[in-house]
Amino acid sequence: MSKRFKQQVKQLRKTSQLVSTNEQSKISNQTKENVRKFGFLMRRALDQGKIPAALKNASQMLDGLRTSALSPKNYYDLYMQVSDELRYLEFFLQEDIKSGKSASKLYKEVQFIEAIVPRLYLMITTGSVLIKSKEVETQDVLSDLIEMCKGVQHPTRGLFLRHYLSQMTKDKLPDKGSEYSTSNDQESLSNSIDFTIKNFVEMNKLWVRIAHQKTPGNLTKKEKEIAQKNLDIERKELKILVGTNLVRLSQLEIVTLEVYTEKVLPLLLEQINECGDPIAQEYLMEVIIQVFSDDYHISTLPSILQTISKLAEGVNIKQIMISLINRLINYSESNSDDINDKEQIFTIFSKGIGLITKERKNLPVKDLLSILNSLIQLALQLNPKQIDYIDRVLRFCYNSASESGSLSRDIIKEINNLLTTPLTKYKNVNVLLEFENYSPLIELLPYSDRRKIALKIIENVLQNSTYIRTSEKVKKLFEYVKILVQDEKDMPSESEEDEYQKTLFLAEQDAVCRLVHLLKSKDLIESFKILQVLAQKFGNSGERRIKHTVSPLVFSSLLLSFKIRDYIEDNEEEQYPLSPKKIFEFVYKIVTSLTPLFPLVSLKLLLQCAQASDKCGFEAICYEFMTKAILAYEEHVVVSKVRFEMITIISSTLQTLRIFDEENYSTLANHAGGHSSKLMVVNDQARAVCLCSYLFWIEDEEEDDDSEEDEEEDEDKEKIYFKDTKRLQGCISRAIRVAGSLMESASMFQLLFEILNVCLYFLRYEIEQINADYVNTLLELIHRKIEENNTNLSELVEPQSFNFYKSTIKHIKYCQSQEETEDLFKQINISISLDDLK
Predict the structure, then answer these.
(1) Tens of pLDDT along 284-300?
(2) Which helix (DSSP H) or strand (DSSP E) does residue 73 occupy?
(3) Averaged pLDDT for residues 56-71
(4) Where would you find the membrane-spanning parts of this chain (predicted)?
């Protein structure tokens, strides 16, 4: 070592003040070079069998660890380099002792080294060799070393020295079944615990004192703050040195639950309380939670929670509590049967959290809510059937959040997590509906978050196909999701919504609509009560929502009417208090009230109701629904294209009804035909009038013949429910006349082709007015129109229409060739061949 360097190191030992970064780098490099130099000389001396010379070189190599000028990080790098050399020394000495040399003598020789730091490192090294040689009691060596280490009180030097002691003795501590135990009595074995705890206590004190090392005096205030901050960061990086003692302590078999409860934990918690350093307290609590057994924690929960409540300001209480709770959650998942008093665990935690909030008035609400969310997860894991646990936590959350005033985004996030946790766990909203404090907690959230939670609840119901069976539960459910079915004071106006918000609104309403079909009871009367609740909720939902939600409500009601009808038919003797008629009256009020707002939706629903009442056998009710549908068409449908679509639907629905007598049916059919003939667009008028022809020739779907003889007689005869051949011909003739008046050839021919197919349909029924001559007249009209245009048909119409007509001609020829249809079709004169159509 150079003379100048020796003088610099000597000067630095006189102060605990750290030097600047550049100076540290210089000193670190010089010290490491010194380690390499004397480490080499030590190895060479060992190889030559010169033990005294090797120990002298080792002492000079260790001299660099006496410095006070290096930061913890730089000192750590130096320590690791020295440790590698000392391990080589230990290995060589162990081999040398096997040859018959005395380990005790070697242990005594190193005690005469002048400098204390090198002396103690070499005492620990030779002490390890001495323990392995078993020349003396292990406990005697350990006691000597733990006492001698008190001679180094500089925080960095002392911390690393004791860490070296811990590493060199960790596999040599007396324990049950250990080769270093000369006695198995509890008092002797407990000395290992005392040794480890003493070393831990001293190391923790030294670690805490690192924070109080002075920064260079020539720095500005800001530079000092930065230096201190960097020192704290480096200090945190050294925490594992302290934690290794607790890890080793947890591995000792002699640390039973009783020993841990009565001796180990009280000493550890006492040291944590006494040190008062936030960094140390937080880390040590984390280590205790992670390294000791879960069943140990369960038995000592009150002590741990009480200590947590008294930790210094600046300690991350949230992280410690969540770590502890998560450990118990994981333990409960795999060892649920081993936990005897699960309710007691929840109660202890509840009291502990209450104590924490009492002792730490400034505990951030967001941290408290995070802890409570973990507590809910624990309660769900311990006993998910005890919903009172979760409800108590939710009440605590509500009180804490509401008392905090305005909610920050962090608090809102935690409330969202609290609400989502039981929803995700149970996968059954029926359980959620038993909470008394769930809905109030939702109300604390801003509009956008309430909206998300409500949608999650509905999606949970849908994904798990959860049926809500009572009207009271349905009311409770809509308290949770009311933001999706009614306007809120804090909701933005529709004009303020962007495209995403509008799309989201439609998705929400779609979810609500699908939800309706899961709200029903096995009891039909209760199902009707549920529908009444829905009608009340949707009735107050506003125009924007009701056009979406009313349809599933109506369809659910119609389905209920069928169930009631079937029940009454199967139980004729029973006087059932609910009838399908009452359901139709209920639906009638809903749908007719919708007509002024959304006539098209109302019209379609009225037609659905007409079909349902037809199936249930209520002629008067069915007639009323059809009348209201036609009135809605007359009064509210004004757009031409929509009028065509609606009159087509009305006509199609009327064709399916079988409940009416001839007079009522004729009245409705005439109205439908009349409105078809009044359409303004000629194409639509011709097509609609033609389709109305089907209204005047309706096949009966019901079988009225009772006897087998009658069935045989009428086997081949079509059964007609309603016929008015004169009106039928009138519709077709008017359609031909209107179509023929079109100026645009493509549209005219397309309509004439469609009318031709309608005529071919009725030809099979041997209707006097719609016979082969009538079809021939229409074909002649088509061919004449083709000739008038003086060109090929393929050039007059679209390819689709052209192929349609060709297929029709082929069909006529096919029917003429078949025995069962030959008589009906043979009189049709096809004056144009398929080749002529090209």
Answers:
(1) 999 999 999 999 999 99
(2) helix 72-97
(3) 90
(4) none
